[in-house]
Specification:
single chain; about 160 residues; alpha/beta; 2 domains; about 25% helix
């Protein structure tokens, strides 16, 4: 009969082997999602601030993943130009808006597409006419603090000391 130490060694080895197999599968299959291929078409959008958006960021339509950001650059006015690769089955109207949203309070950022009612469709290589920048939490909090200070009459004065 095998000793307890031998059984523990075999069990540990099996756990490590299964973990290695799962890790290998994750790496092999992880890069083969339908939206990461070269299929689809490219569209561009310009933003004043594209905070939190990078290459590989999700592009969603009605909450469904329809593409990814594939390129970032700056135009002559230092605005962020993002290029998206969208699935070929997704056709968007010419007045579709591209909006940068945050996934929850502290989640990652993504681009949500908001279709309009135009009869014309965007063709490959065209640019979105309507965009909305990312909301920066720090700027939002600063605006709330400034409004509170203004309501209390402390906008241009230092805050009173509360300690004696």
């Amino acid at each position: 009969m095998a000793s307890r130490a031998d059984r523990d060694t075999v069990t540990g080895g099996a756990v490590v082997a299964v973990g290695a197999l799962l890790l290998t599968l994750a790496f092999v299959l992880g890069g083969k999602s339908p939206d990461s291929s070269s299929e689809g078409y490219l569209l561009k959008a310009r933003f004043n601030h594209a905070d939190g958006i990078g290459i590989g960021s999700a592009v969603r339509l009605s909450g469904t993943l329809v593409g990814r950001v594939v390129e970032q650059s700056l135009d002559e006015r230092y605005r962020a130009v993002l290029t998206f690769r969208l699935r070929p089955d997704v056709q968007l109207t010419a007045d579709t808006a591209a909006v940068i949203y945050t996934d929850g309070l502290l989640g990652g950022k993504f681009i949500e597409l908001k279709p309009g009612g135009d009869d014309r469709m965007l063709a490959a290589g065209q640019e979105f006419q309507y965009t909305q920048d990312a909301v920066v939490i720090e700027d939002l909090l600063d605006m709330i603090i400034q409004q509170a200070r203004a309501k209390r009459g402390y906008l241009d004065k230092p805050l009173p000391q509360t300690t004696n």
